[in-house]
Amino acid sequence: MQRYMESHHLKNFIHFCSLFHYPFITINHFFFLVTYSTTFTMKMTEVQTSASTASIPRRMRDVKVDRNGVTCYDEEITKIVDYTYDFEITSPQAWTRATSALLDAIGAGLESISTSSELSQLVGPTFPSPDTIPNGFKLPGTNYQLDIVKGAFDMGAMIRYLNHNDAFLGAEWTHPSDNLGAILSTADVLSRVATFKDDQDSILTMRHVLIALIKAYEIQGCFQGKNAFNKAGLDDIILVKVASTAVVSWLMGLPKEQAKAAVSHAWIDGNPLRAYRQAPNVGPRKNWAAGDACMRAVQLALMAKTGQPGVKTALSAPRSGFYDVLFRGNTFDLPRPFGTSVIENVFFKVYTAESHGMTALEAALSICAELKEKKLSMSDIKSIQVRTQEAAMVIMNKQGALHSPSDRDHSLGYMIAITLLKNALPEAEDYQNTSSWSKDPRVEELRDKISIKEDAEFTQDFHNQDLRSLANAIKVTLNDDTELEEIVIHFPQGHARRKESLELVERKARRNFALKLSEERINMILEKTKSMEFFGMSVCEFVDLFVPDRE
Predict the structure, then answer these.
(1) Residue 404 in contact with residue 276, Cβ under 8 Å?
(2) What's the pTM value of the predicted model, to 2 decimals?
(3) Which of 167, 228, 323, 400 is the most exposed place for a label (fewest CB within 10 A)?
(4) SS3 436
């Protein structure tokens, strides 16, 4: 009896009785209390179990506790691989824009390797490998011929290093052409090996590269549309790794089951934290992180090719899967089936600026023209008010000293200031430590006059998948308190809504190619990409065109 009387719920009930002046408890009362206590405990257990189940995302609740019986991969993994292997691309616009994206990305890589001394330290063979290996990847703009894995890193890092490659915006902010690092390295090596063996049926063509590019864009873009990895502190390059793993598996000719295994391991890897992309820790890792993802994608595909099994519930496994460990218990929200929408709407950076701030720079040029017309200078400016989207506030609203190119190219204030002072859009050199702008006191004076705030409507339009706006507004107040008319621009040059975008992309590619190639070679490349024969051109023949005329 004493054991029962020590029950927590029984003691509570006795206390309840005492409050209503029932000081004596008979044997009947006792048995009632025992029954009540047992029933109450069972009910509480049911409630607790129900509550804990309700806190688990639906997909996790549907998975049985006994994991050994699982025979199917998580739905998202299967969708990625089925799309990669089965979807037929029929959109003419997708093929056209994919070709532009290819040229833009390679051009961005040549610009990076020609401009950044930091990058030059990273590219090249893995010690102690020689500068060239037989049938290796010929890294564009260099004389290196690298192994397939290091080639993927170097190409991915080159494309992304100056933040001058394309972008696609949503709940997450990514650069889909990062994937070309894995795609081009893999396709080139496979093509060279097949050519060396005279295995004509296995030689990959530029059509294979464009298919892989379109599909990598789509996988990455669909996952980023409504899934904010940044909110969980994760870097967006996880999507490069996943998308590249899928399409590289296809390029290698892996069966679907091995491709699923490779993709599952891309999720299982976890992910780099976003700390190196935001103050106070911004650093050059943000520039080579995409190369790291490309390298890992190729490694995973190669391991899957040997027969390494996958992790079937890599995403949904309770407590140990991606959702529970890294995504705060949330599951992915895919806004639509995979198709070709991302390549058809990707945003090309036709000048060197972080995409969220580009319309602000175009607005700044309009202000320059107005000040010139009024015979005024930058010293006549009292203050500059900027309205922008939430994403720009997170990424680009930097205060205090800017110590590195990584700081400057992600500072909206710095970018606006040098645009006003130059009366021209920024160039890659303007962000470097060696640039005169990095030490010009007038830049800091203007930065101090700039205030930036979020505009809720701009943020809403940014997330609207039918608009994908990158709106910024700038309003200048002069020293005599005169206010100039606010300049608002919603879509920058390079946006899918700007008709001149593809023409500007070609001009940009020409400029970048000229850093390493002769005009004759550039014309040859562009002519080939505009002919139907381009689709049947071997990958190694195409890549050979980017071996530099001069070093």
Answers:
(1) no
(2) 0.81
(3) 400
(4) helix
